[in-house]
Specification:
This protein is α+β, with helices and mostly antiparallel strands. The protein folds into 4 domains: 2-47 and 175-256; 63-168, no CATH class; 287-343; 364-514, 2-Layer Sandwich (Heat Shock Protein 90). The chain has 13 helices and 15 strands. Helix 7 packs antiparallel against helix 9 and helix 9 packs across helix 13.
Length: 516
């Protein structure tokens, strides 16, 4: 299960990372396309504006001072109908009209070139096939000549473009494009490609920042940086670069996969929680099973000894020699009665715990004195302590000793704690019992100088069936229900129990119950 969980987590992490990298590539490609488009549009817009202004200037001047016609190429149509005695000859040329006006005289920003206009000329000549084609005097042999003059479109624009690119390279970049125009073009391109995140931009001239930049743009800009050439010359070279940075690129890219990644993370966490809970339950059930087995073994051991004793006593009573001796007979009967009482006590403890668990208020309460409960408990364990040559010291300093409770159950819980203090003493048991008052509470401390408990044992000491063990599970008699019973009785009395213990330093149980 753990291996499967780790594999699921690794696969999900790999998938999310791959999705993020793919989105990053998508983003970078979209930005590069946007910048290339903006660069082309800026240059086309600049040349288009120049051509429009130039053409408007030419139209306003009037008749040119000088005109030159230049053939560009000739073409003879050889695919005419063979039955016809005619063939077509085409000539395409450029009509150059010079107005003999210097541009700098009109606008110093336009340079030192003369104002010239270019028109495309199409000439169609129809020739007779029986005439000899004379390259030097082709017009003389023509039957019909058709000429048309019109504005050039692509070709003349390319002429203007080449001329203007040479001229514009001397103009500062902030006069060629305004920051607001560049931002508008970038906004449109980014929006068209769904790049909706904050960005900064600037134009660099040989790696030096120019005046064309966004308000908050700095040279050491944080975030991913993208660049493209702008204002490229005919030779493909340019000193200018358009640079755009996206400070929040990673957040924007991650947000695009957040919904799917979030669902994946949620489901993975859910699987981890469910699996962890299942593993925890399995471990807990294993512990409970072990504790129950331990409980059964200990209970079997607790019952086995008195049963064996009773069997031996019965065998002795059956002997005729024993029956003839009254004193010996009464001794065996007393032994049977004591062992029977011992077994009954064990059964009663288990039934008592069961009754407490089944009902939230299974006992009757009355006014009791804690000193009376202590006296009764001490009387029950006095013989055991004396047999082990132990000592119980009492320090009853509480001025107020009355509280609402059940004398029998409260006495039993004290007996349980004293019994544990005796059983878990390494040597002669030394126990101290003290009482005091604090904030309308009676505080009862039971302290021993026994083997103590480690931190892990302290966490589970009040759990049902749990017993501290060392080596043989029968080295300390008991069934693991005593402290569970103690905690339950304290809770029913509205009190609290705390534990302070260290290995080889002993244990202190601090019980507090509200005063009457």
């Amino acid at each position: 299960m753990i291996v499967s969980l780790v594999a699921v987590i690794v696969v999900q992490a790999y998938w999310i990372n791959s999705a993020f990298e793919n989105k990053e590539e998508e983003f970078s490609l979209a930005v590069s396309q946007s910048l290339q488009s903006v660069s082309t549009k800026v240059q086309d817009m600049e040349i288009s504006d120049y051509i429009a202004a130039y053409q408007q200037l030419i139209d306003s001047i009037g008749t040119p001072d000088e005109s030159n016609f230049t053939d560009i190429f000739l073409f003879v149509d050889n695919e005419d109908d063979i039955t016809s005695n005619l063939t077509s000859f085409y000539a395409f040329g450029i009509l150059e009209e010079d107005y003999n006006i210097n541009l700098s005289d009109i606008n110093p920003d336009l340079g030192d070139e003369n104002v010239k206009d270019y028109k495309q000329v199409k000439t169609t000549t129809i020739l007779s096939k029986d005439k000899i084609f004379n390259r030097e005097n082709r017009v003389a042999t023509s039957i019909t000549k058709l000429k048309s003059v019109e504005r050039m479109s692509v070709f003349d624009q390319e002429i203007f473009r080449s001329a203007y690119l040479d001229y514009s390279s001397t103009i500062p970049v902030h006069k060629r494009i305004r920051t607001e125009e560049l931002k508008l073009l970038l906004d449109r391109e980014f929006k068209a490609r769904n790049i909706l995140t904050f960005y900064e931009f600037g134009i660099y001239n040989n790696d030096l920042a120019t005046k064309v930049k966004s308000n908050e743009y700095i040279e050491k800009q944080r975030g991913s940086k993208y660049e493209t050439s702008i204002f490229t010359q005919d030779n493909g070279q340019t000193p200018y670069k358009l640079v755009v940075t996206f400070p929040d690129r990673d957040q924007f890219v991650f947000s695009s996969i957040l919904s799917v990644a979030g669902l994946s993370i949620f489901l993975t966490l859910f699987i981890i929680i469910v699996s962890t809970t299942a593993i925890y339950q399995i471990i807990q059930q294993k512990k409970v099973s072990e504790m129950k087995s331990d409980f059964i073994n200990n209970m079997s051991h607790e019952f086995k000894t008195p049963i064996a004793t009773i069997n031996l006593a019965l065998d002795a009573i059956s002997n005729p020699k024993t029956q003839s001796t009254k004193t010996r007979l009464l001794g065996y009967v007393k032994m049977i009665r004591e062992e029977n009482k011992r077994m009954l006590s064990q059964v009663e403890n288990i039934l008592m715990i069961s009754r407490l668990e089944k009902s939230s208020s299974p006992i009757d309460f009355s006014e009791i004195d804690i000193n009376h409960a202590l006296e009764d408990a001490l009387r029950r364990v006095d013989l055991i302590v004396k047999n082990q040559k132990g000592k119980i010291d009492t320090q009853l300093h509480a001025n107020h000793t009355l509280f609402k409770g059940n004398l029998n159950h409260f006495t039993n819980l004290i007996v349980n704690l004293l019994d544990n203090a005796i059983k878990y003493s390494d040597g002669v048991p030394v126990i101290t019992i003290s009482t005091s008052n604090e904030d309308n509470m009676i505080i009862l401390n039971i302290r021993d100088e026994g083997i103590g408990m480690d931190v892990n044992t302290q966490k589970h000491i009040f759990e049902k069936f749990f017993r501290e063990q060392s080596g043989n599970i029968h080295n300390v008699k008991g069934h693991g229900l005593g402290l569970s019973y103690v905690k339950k009785v304290i809770e029913l009395h509205g009190g609290d129990i705390k534990l302070i213990s260290k290995i080889d330093k002993g244990t202190i149980f601090v019980i507090s119950v509200p005063l009457l």
